[in-house]
Amino acid sequence: MGQSSSAEQVSPEQREAESIAASTGALPNLQKAFSVLSDPQTHSIPIHSLQKCFGFSIDGSTNEESVVPKEFPVLMSNLSSSIVDLFFLSEKGGISWVEFLKGYIKCSGRTVSSASLNSLLRLFGMISVKAGLPEKLQVVSDEDDCKISGFLLPVDVQMLLSMCWIMWWDSNKLKASSSLGDSGLPDVTHLVLSAIDSCAEADKKMDLWETSILDMDIQLPVAKIIMWALKTVPSLSDCFGKFVHARLFYVAAHEQEKLDQPDLFSHDISAKEMSVGHLLNSGRAWAISLTLRGTLSEEISKVCFPSAAEEVDDYLLYRSSLHGKGLNRFWSNIEGYNAPLLILISAHVTNNDARRWIIGALIHQGLENHDTFYGTSGSLYSISPVFHVFTPSGKEKNFVYSHLHGTVKYEAHPKPVGLAFGGSSGNERIFVDEDFAKVIVRHHACDKTYHHGPLYPDQGFLPVEASIMDVEVLGLGGKRARDIQSSYKKREELFTEQRRKVDLKTFGNWEDSPEKMMMDMVSDPNRVRREDR
Name one Pfam family in it (predicted). Predict the structure, then answer.
């Protein structure tokens, strides 16, 4: 099914839909999926069959202590029916080949990010209404580039992000073709607070250090939410498209009976959130991955998988609480790693231990010992308690500064020893001292490399010196980069060992040595010596 015979007249609508699907490389698999799901007699897909393809069960329960709203399981139970009703038009109880193609293109086709976000919000609005929640979103027009009006509450943003996480997780689980287990729902509080900080009216912003999302009654305009998502998490809308794509491709690759497996399309929201490092859990890693695209996004995404816990060493290069504090300890663990690095710093202002914050830097290359700034690209992150990303501004290229103690030679004006990001020498936006005890954070006015914004809530104009709690470095170059680093370290250890050894044979015979002659001359300077010829 899905292929018209030579005798049949292909309509322009079908030809256009097949052409768009073929341009994405998905047409052969869509034809297989249509053959598996369709009824041979009607040559169309029954609605319940396509709903089953997009359906899954939510295991676990919420309680009073849970950060997941109690309405969330009911919300997710209406996901599959809402996808079919909203994007796949049916005729006489079935979905034709053309409508099946057009539905796939609406969900997973190539389009601008704003249109994808509108589709995601339309889906969330329909699911909310089916779950019995108050209607907060209104569709201005029914066209493909429809506009959305209305607002969302912070708890709605939390459920929207959790829904995107499940769809993202499901697509990666099917892509891996293995049982990865459940990671539970990650803590997305930092993302919700980011939306509140960016979208709430100035007179309604609250203390972001001490707040409960479930109790907040702040209306966030949907237009501002779209702008926030495009700026902070531009890959968020891809979660829905990848979900639809992965499910249909899974159907194409397996028989109908595979869809009846009870554990394949289930998600346990009560499972414990996975954590690769002390500072990087799955929720923070997922947020960072949503700011990226391509290989870097995929490498960060791997951190979210429970299977990655067995290979922590492939990602975690350095942790100050494990390897010891200081620039020398730091350097001995990251030297030779010539691939992108994610550096996380946890700190708190002096005499205010309760308000800890986490900031980070992503650089697209390995670190080098330089007394000047260098780098090709990178980003700064405010990770906790509020998530923000500061991409390159394009004005300067002072991405990273990493300088160890120089040689013994005298320097009239020695360069500072430490680790820095953005700003300029002596006026860095982030500067970590050589002992990894203090970090200085300056206002963005001193920095022309990264975009402006506060690195932690209530950051003022004056520089702030904070006490470092922990530092973590994760390598994002994959197994190949780690193998190259291991070879580099073995080579350096071999050179060091060779320099320690002294080969006595290189000094020759003592009787013929200049030292022996000098000693003899001192003992008897008048002794007549015959020159050897």
Answer: TLD
